[in-house]
Amino acid sequence: MLILSDFITVEAKNLLREYRGINNTVLISFFRVRTSYKYFFLFLLFVGLRLPGLVYDQPWLIPEWKAVLLGQQMYAGFALYSEIWDDTAPLSALVYWGMYALFGETQLAYQLVASGLVLVQALMLNEILRGRQVFLDLTLVPALLFVVLMSVFPDMFVLSPPLLANTFLLIVIRYLFLHIAERRRYSAVFEIGAYTGLAALFYLAAGVFLLVPLLAFLSFTSTKPLEYLLMVFAFLFPLGVAFLVFFLSNHEYDFYLNFLASVASLRTEFYLPWYYLLLMLGFPLGLCLLTVFQFGTYRLYTNYQNRCQNLMGLWLLAGAGSLLFASEVSMFSLIPMLSAVVFMLSHFFLMMKAALLARRLIYVFIAGSNLFGLWDNV
User: Fold this and answer.
1) H helices of 132-207, where?
2) What is the model's pLDDT at position 370?
3) What whole-number distance in Å separates Cα of residue 116 and Cα of residue 99?
4) What does the alpha-carbon distance between residue 301 and residue 317 come to, in Å, rounded to a whole number?
5) Is residue 14's pLDDT more than 50?
6) Closest alpha carbon to 346 in 147, 66, 97
7) Residue 307, Cα to own-chain centre: how many angstroms?
8) What is the share, in percent, of the chain residues with pLDDT greater than 90?
9) How many angstroms separate the CA atoms of 28 and 58, rounded?
């Protein structure tokens, strides 16, 4: 009985807070305060954004065919890197092998798995930001913005290595926030390094994000030099295990040549020109820039929350830098940096005092993103 009354009290407080803060509960206002039933409406919105792309008979994209053919050849018994010359990360290749074994060449199956992964990542990011008290509000806005950004481009429907790696990068973000907390009880450097290493086994360019904790901890934490060494060791450990697996099968040089050495390759496959990528993200990145200026004038944040903002600024830069080491560049290459974009945009909309302007901007944001997505289909 006590648990039920506590639950009712919390829900009542959330509803009261929502009523006092916003007059008209529409979209951004509706998701501003997190309550249990709103997860259902978030799911409906996600289905509404994804359903047209899933139902509409779309042609196969090059990355989709590459994933299917890689899984097909591995399923046929050909060895990765030694008999299949490709730079796809080993864990991503393993996923493609499993997908082909289960679903064959069914495009819808790959897109449904990718959509499910996007929804899980949206909820993960929202719970990470809520649990670490990054925002002043207990909100669902980060999940809302994440599903919008991940549902407007055809490339985002692909079960790509960056999408697979992003799950572990989100866990890295959680431990980063934990480590820089003002009253942390233990160091999270091992977990940060280990999960970044696992992400690199799905998408090698994700290893660039190891620079974020290194630079952030040097700037505003008292992390000991030995802990930095532990973080680097934890990052290299998964890569070392993968190297050992190929070493035992006498294919270690193929693993090095096709996977590890690909990060230094000057050959990059651009599925979209760079100016097109900037155009697609021009509006979200413009809002992120406005958010950075607003941070300096907003005085309600704690020292811990200001550190989190600096941390996600570094994450955004690392996401841009990862493109320099990617062998394939398309819209899905931007997925690892979208967590920082969502973080900035959530602050932007939550900090706005003009409710009418906030509602209009979110409509413009969603409509503009969908128009860009339709243009990408042309």
Assistant:
1) 141-149, 161-179, 189-202
2) 54
3) 14
4) 22
5) no
6) 147
7) 20
8) 33
9) 31
Per-residue pLDDT, 24: 35
* CB burial of residue 48 (10 Å; 0-12, 13-18, 19+): exposed
pLDDT recorded at residue 98? 95
Residues near 161 by beta carbon (within 8 Å), at least 6 away in sequence: 88, 89, 92, 202, 203
List the one residue out of 91, 94, 90, 87 whose CA is nearest residue 263: 87
Q: What is the pLDDT of residue 327?
A: 84
**Cα distance between residue 146 and residue 157, in whole Å:** 14
Burial label, 295 (beta-carbon count in 10 A; 0-12, 13-18, 19+):
middle
The first and second tokens of residue 273, run together, are 């020109």
- How large is the average pLDDT for residues 83-96? 93
10 Å CB burial of residue 188 (0-12, 13-18, 19+) is buried
- What is the rounded CA–CA span in Å between residue 269 and residue 251? 26
Mean pLDDT computed over 213-217: 90
Dist CA 68 CA 252 (whole Å): 25
Residue 156: what pLDDT? 83
The strand pairing partners of 270, in sequence order, are: 329
Alpha-carbon distance 237 to 378, whole Å?
44
Burial label for 197, CB within 10 Å (0-12, 13-18, 19+), is: buried
**84 with 67: CB under 8 angstroms?**
no
What is the pLDDT at residue 221? 77
Which residues face 84 on adjacent strands? Answer: 80
Contact indicator for 340, 129 with CB cutoff of 8 Å: no
What tens digit of pLDDT does each residue of 44-79 get? 888 887 777 677 767 788 889 999 999 999 999 999
Tokens standing for 320? 């841009």
Q: How would you class 189 by CB atoms within 10 Å of its CB: exposed for 0-12, middle for 13-18, buried for 19 or more? A: buried
Would you report the helix, strand and coil content of the chain in percent, each value rounded to 5? 75, 0, 25
Please compute the mean of the pLDDT values over residues 220-234 and round it to a whole number.
88
The structure tokens listed for 143 are 């999940």
- Among the residue ranges 109-118, 150-159, 328-337, the one predicted with the least confidence is 150-159
Question: What single-letter amino acid sits at 104?
Answer: G
Strand spans (E) along the chain: 269-270, 328-329
- In the numeric block, which tokens belong to residue 125? 């990011």
Task: Label residue 106 left, alpha or beta by phi (over 0 means left) and psi (-120 to 50 means alpha).
Answer: beta
Structure tokens at 372: 């860009």
